[in-house]
Design goal:
single chain, alpha/beta, Rossmann fold, seven-stranded mixed sheet, two-stranded antiparallel ribbon, 4 helices
């Protein structure tokens, strides 16, 4: 399957999940994350879920990060430039949905991508080699290229890996891990 067909397949699979199933699977993913050797880091980038897209409920991960007193960084989308601006989540942060229903901070303390230690990456599908398929606009690939070389890139998925994607481009940034409700995939050599 090409990327377009895979996007459609996984969007449809997500649309078939009930709210209760999304909550259950999201909690299992968050619990599996606790097994990764990532919790000694300082700055963690987290995406906030687009409920209308039936994305993974990341509030469980947020609670873990806050419980461990970690610095949580959120992004604001710059649609025109296909870039993300990053802000530290604080008690004063104001989160609002943009016109695409993406919850994002209105502003705050700016954080440079090269300060990040761990990035939780949204995706629609991934393969056994660590390649991911997102929504196709390149926001995360562009952002991940700005991060330091040893930043840990962790995909989150309700579903298991595809064997291998046929369409992989030089601009695609592979994952280090992908965590599902049933398995942790490691792509680190």
């Amino acid at each position: 399957m090409n990327k377009t067909a895979l996007r459609k397949k996984y969007k449809n699979l997500r649309l078939g999940l009930s709210e209760e199933k999304i909550e259950e699977l999201s909690l299992e993913i968050a619990n599996n994350l606790l097994q990764l050797p990532i919790w000694q880091k300082e700055f963690y980038h987290l995406f906030l879920s687009i409920a209308e897209q039936k994305e993974i409920a990341t509030e469980y991960i947020l609670h873990i990060l806050q419980g461990k007193d970690k610095n949580v960084v959120l992004s604001k989308t710059n649609i025109q430039e296909h870039t993300l601006d990053h802000f530290l989540l604080t008690d004063n942060s104001v989160i609002k949905k943009n016109k695409w229903n993406i919850p994002e901070p209105e502003g705050g303390i700016a954080i440079a991508p090269n300060q990040l230690d761990v990035v939780f990456v949204p995706l629609l599908a991934f393969d056994e080699k660590g390649h991911r398929i997102g929504y196709g606009k390149g926001f995360y690939d562009n952002f991940l290229k700005e991060c330091k070389p040893d930043v840990l890139k962790i995909g989150l998925s309700f579903f298991k890996a595809e064997p291998e994607f046929k369409e992989v481009f030089n601009s695609d940034v592979p994952l280090d891990y992908c965590v599902t409700p049933n398995k942790i995939y490691s792509f680190k050599n």
